[in-house]
Amino acid sequence: IAIGTCNMTYAFKFAGNADVVDDSLQNDIAALNNIEISKFSYMITMALSFAAKLNTTSMDDVIHELSANIAERLELKSKSLARVLNSVLLFISGAIKYNLSVSSVEADLSAFGLNTEHIAAFTKSWNEHYVTLNRSAVKSSLKFNEVIDMEWKFGVSASSDSCKKLGTTFLQLKLVLDKGDKTEDVVMELSLKQFYEFLHEMEKAKLAMQSATE
Predict the structure, then answer these.
(1) 3-class DSSP state for residue 125?
(2) Distance between CA 190 and CA 173 in Å, rounded?
(3) How far separated are the first and last CA of the chain, in Å rounded?
(4) What is the pLDDT of residues 75-132, one digit of tens each?
(5) Does pTM surpass 0.70?
(6) CA atoms within 13 A on the CB side of 202
(7) I need a labelling partner for 76 at 20 to 30 A (CA). Which of 38, 120, 150, 182 fits?
(8) Residues 60, 197: Cα–Cα separation, whole Å
(9) Are 202 and 166 in contact (CB under 8 A)?
(10) 53 Cβ contact partners less than 8 Å away, ≥ 6 residues apart
(11) Distances in Å between the alpha carbon of 19 and those of 7, 12, 44, 115?
(12) pLDDT score for 78
């Protein structure tokens, strides 16, 4: 696989703070600027809706199903659409893995060259799906791994690109999972509203799992 640099001075959060990414991924994300904004918003919303399936379904199968649902509306050839969706889902899956906040998603997309209008549309959908995606990822992990520790702390935003976000309260949650021969940290940064939504969803998941074992 050809590896290239997108911005040597920037550490991509979705890739675990790596400062190099695939050239094809860089080009595909930047090319999203060419998609009309309403179609772009629709594509990202649908991609985020399907992203939870990556926990149990292969990338190829998710792309095939997603393409079948959105190809006609986006007016893109299936081959071109599949490549775009592959790059979008790779970014989304990395963002889920590293539990990126909205500001981190914005920074990564900006480093890729996505314009402000498209970034705003992406982060709007990301914010709406964040709790559901994290719940799905954590629920999948808990099926096979025991939680051996949990840490949490509250914080208040002291700086932001948007003055509206100044003083916003957030909660940082870290789960430590036992994966047999090693442990793995799952970290999430949630607004208070997102935290209560996440807590409610995890309670529902706990009850469902208890019912399944009875």
Answers:
(1) helix
(2) 8
(3) 48
(4) 877 778 999 999 999 999 888 888 788 888 999 999 999 999 999 999 999 988 887 7
(5) no
(6) 15
(7) 120
(8) 31
(9) no
(10) 62, 65
(11) 7, 6, 25, 20
(12) 75
